[in-house]
Amino acid sequence: MPVGTHGKITVTPYLDGVRLVGEGKTWHTPEGDQVPMKKITWIARCRFRDNDGRTRPVEAWSSTRTGAEQNLQDALTTRKRASSDKITAGTRLEVLADYWLRTKIDPSKLAVNTKQRYRYATEQYVIPGLGGLLLRECTVSRLEAWVTREVEVEERPASARLALSCLKGMLDVAVREDALTANPARSVTPVPATADAEVKALAVAEVVKLRAALATDKKAKSQDLGDLVDILLATGCRIGEALALRWSEVDLDEHVVYLTGTVVREKGVRLFRQDTTKGKKPRGHLVPAFAVTMLERRSAEVEPGELDLVFPSWRSGLREVTTVDKQWREFRERHPEWTWITPKTFRKSVGTAVERGADIEAAAAQLGHSRSAVTAKHYVEVAAIGPDHREILERFGGIAAPA
């Protein structure tokens, strides 16, 4: 048998350690005494070839035949996984991928959303596309061909870029385990980044008009969309950070709001408040008067609830980011002139306004970016007219005096 596989499974009935004889629902001791079904213990057995090459017996038991066989299958699954944790050149890529996710990604300090993105890319793209290859078969040309197909045929450049990043990570593990001498994924041609969409921000007049529309839309008002937009415009925070805001982090006397966490949905588990922002550092913002007025009104109107949330759900719990996204789409359907606006537009509008009124470093600090280059590239709208340097440039128009 190959390493990590098992032989034929047999299931046998016993009573107090004595093997019974019979069939169906009629079983007897060797002496001929009939045994009631409820007293029988069923034992499922097979032989399994472990990672050291030795074949050993494995067994499991239950009060039913089916239960015993299922328990044995569960034990074999655990044993196979333990066996697969030894990575060699003959290991399949799908086994390495599982090992990488379980031992390197899941226990890491990466954000929950980042872990979920890595797992999704691995399970949806890497394993279906390359999982059957042995590590020794993961050549640069094979990986290159797969990435090219994902980009050009499947038209998934962003997914291919993330999948290639996952491939590099898991094959680095194979190198550290001495299964490979070099990481072939690191020689694959990088997937070029797609052209960034032009940053579009709201002008002051547009913000005033939009806030008026939100204030007069009954559905939007019942969903607190206007108040949410106000906190986004007052801080430049992300929607998940706004939904995680607690009253204990709001200082109405000093006009300060502290952003310390975000709302996250962990797939298959729960919705919870992650006690760090995307930038990992809490941020305090002095907020303008319109936001203070809104917060003062909400402090009198909103039941704090057990979670002390400023923007709770109707059940006083956490609100889903996806729920707010849906509510915003419905608002846009009722008001078609705002179809181009998403919750992220408000963050871009804040970045643009601060950059225009101060500078790019101030805008980066407002948005919580560690590098102003990110702010300039993704969050500041390019001015239609450049800066007024006419006085400086006028010097070129001088006329030399005649000799």
Overview of this protein structure:
The chain is built from 15 helices and eleven strands. It is α+β, with helices and mostly antiparallel strands and 403 residues long. The mean pLDDT is 87. A hairpin with a 5-residue loop joins strand 5 (41-49) and strand 6. It is elongated.
Mean pLDDT: 87
Number of domains: 3
Strand content: 5-15%
- Shape summary: elongated
H/E series: EEEEEEHHHHHHHHHEEEEEHHHHHH
Rg of Cα set: 31 Å
CATH domain class name of the largest domain = Mainly Alpha
- For the record, the CATH architecture of the largest domain stands as Orthogonal Bundle
Largest sheet: 4 strands, antiparallel
Structural class: alpha+beta
Helix content: 40-55%
For CATH, the homologous superfamily of the largest domain is named as: Intergrase catalytic core
Number of strands: 11
Q: How many alpha or pi helices?
A: 15
- Contiguous low-pLDDT stretches (5 residues minimum) are none
Report how far the terminal alpha carbons are from each other: 102 Å
The oligomeric state is single chain
